[in-house]
Design a protein that fits this description.
Shape: globular
CATH topology of the largest domain: Alpha-Beta Plaits
Largest sheet: 4 strands, antiparallel
Organism: Mytilus galloprovincialis
Order of helices and strands: EEEEEHHEEHEHEEE
Low-confidence stretches: 1-16
Number of helices: 4
CATH architecture of the largest domain: 2-Layer Sandwich
InterPro entries: DNA/RNA_pol_sf, Rev_trsase/Diguanyl_cyclase
Mean pLDDT: 88
Protein name: Reverse transcriptase domain-containing protein
Length: 184
């Protein structure tokens, strides 16, 4: 196999990369998961009614959606997505479940037609749940052209994938140089 290909990446999820790799993420994923009205009280916070006046009274607010950065947020997002996929079973739902890392999907296909079908099916599946897949990128020019026409393409030739850089044009993974302490 060509050295520019990835065989397997593991980081909480599994993505076996074959001829056509693809990555995408869920736009504002945490904000799309609403909190039940009775759960909003535990997300209260105070804010100055006039931020330019430090003596102004505080106003109390409550979040209506899952908080980005809260320890439990990735779990709540994952549970929400899994419930949606269980209610809408399909090969696409199974693949996303397998290759999802928080709000990012990294997967691959042997055939370009399968990749294109995944693009259409996954966008439709996630839209049913109120989610929008964006920042699509792939080593498939066909997918990149379609994503560009639908304004969901990540136009960068280099994409961050699980702590590495992937040059989609050359289909090569780039690893950051790390100094290793020779005394260890």
């Amino acid at each position: 196999m060509d050295s520019s290909r990835i065989k397997c990446i593991r980081a909480g999820n599994r993505a076996a990369v074959t001829k056509f790799a693809v990555t995408t993420n869920i736009k504002k994923a945490f904000l799309q998961v609403g909190l039940h009205k009775s759960d909003r009280d535990v997300t209260r916070f105070f804010w100055l009614s006039d931020p330019t006046d430090s003596t102004s009274p505080f106003t109390t607010y409550r979040f209506k959606s899952v908080l980005f950065g809260a320890t439990c947020s990735p779990f709540i997002l994952n549970a929400t997505l899994l419930k949606h996929f269980e209610e809408n079973p399909s090969p696409t739902a199974s693949r996303i479940t397998q290759d999802l890392f928080v709000d990012n999907v990294l997967t691959s296909f042997t055939a370009e037609d399968d990749l294109m079908q995944f693009y259409r099916d996954s966008r439709c599946l996630l839209q049913k749940g109120g989610f929008n897949l964006r920042s699509w990128n792939s080593n498939s020019n066909r997918l990149r052209e379609l994503a560009e026409t639908e304004n969901v393409l990540d136009s960068s030739n280099e994409v961050n994938i699980l702590g590495m850089r992937w040059n989609v044009a050359d289909d090569k993974l780039l690893f950051a140089e790390v100094d290793i302490d020779s005394t260890m």
